[in-house]
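Re: Re: token formats

Sure, here are both.
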Amino acid sequence: MKVTEEAQLLSGNGTGQNLNGLVPQATSYAGGATGDSPIDTIRRAIHQVRLSEHTANGIVVHPDFLLEIDLIKDSEERYLLGSPIHGNQPRLWGLPVIATTAMASNEFLVGAFGSAAAIFDRQEAVIELSTEHADNFAKNMVSIRCEERIGMAVFQPEAFVTGSF
């Protein structure tokens, strides 16, 4: 259930019962210099958020991107972004990096998550079982309903930047 919620919060298209996700509302990445690495791209996106008078406090990427970043080594075969022995929260440019399969594999989202958007949780996840629906009792069946009610508001779309590597 939380996987579906995460996908809606990031990429929901806003039609019907879908949330209007962060990525569709975010500002497009303005682009960088020729030859920029993915790490350079993230830094330029952070700067783009800052130019919109906001301060980015998080980065969302696909786990494949985080894997590639984690495996970067210097000429002496030392990992650049931390020791594999220490299980630290992944960070780039001082910001926490959240890896989720709800984000497309070659895309990113950088933003001011704490101040520019809010989630409104009207009802926690509820699971209900019933044998009273239609002829469930006679057929020895059980109906299961699971629902959650949330909403999201993006107050300042310019505080989010999304793009591709």
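Second one below.
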Amino acid sequence: MHIWIFAGLCEKNDLMLYLCKILASTGKRVLLVDGTLQQKYGYSIGDHQQSLRVVEFEGFDLACHFVTGAAVEQHLQMNGETLDSYDYVLYDMETLHFASRNLWLAADVRVWVSDYERYNLERGKGWLEQLLNEHELPEELAFQRMLINGVDCRLEAHYLWAYLEGSPFQWTGESLILPWDELSAAVKLENEHHRRVQLGPLSRNYKKSLCRVVEQLTGWERVRSRRAIKEVGRMRA
């Protein structure tokens, strides 16, 4: 089982859904856990009742409306499952209390995700400092960095990450950027309204960047990541 935690104060649900569908397209069993403040993933599946559920969606499982990661594990056990039943478990994390100290330590991948907004960049350092203090985590804990909704402007990655200088954890790997344009926004909105996850209409540039993200997180060769994304493009909802 591989545990990936994507922490950050910006909305990243489209990225998470794309990654889960790519992983699931290779025959892996995948669970996406909603640890966001507003619990938006329930709307992806049409669940407006705020019920604790782990449901199948687009070839992977989605855990919605849980208060903590431990509650997800308890729910799975009550239904004869465990986290170990999955090849990949991905967490979209916005709250400090959702994951336990052990979960942060056990994660194979920890990614700090931010967009370009100054508000989120400035809050990020404080969030990470609070995470360190509340869970008594070691400062050598490593995070990878990712910028989403990247636009063509004069703000370069090294300038944006400067907002997190002096943050309590270690940065590792390449700083990745996912581009954003009108087509990306259109695909996101259409997927939300039709309750599906389609990657086919995304721009070539976006899919190329998504390939780099998959390769860095999984260690796959480029040919494998490109094949997986092409497979997703051929899949029907």
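The longest strand covers residues 142-150. The two ends are 26 Å apart (CA to CA).
- S.
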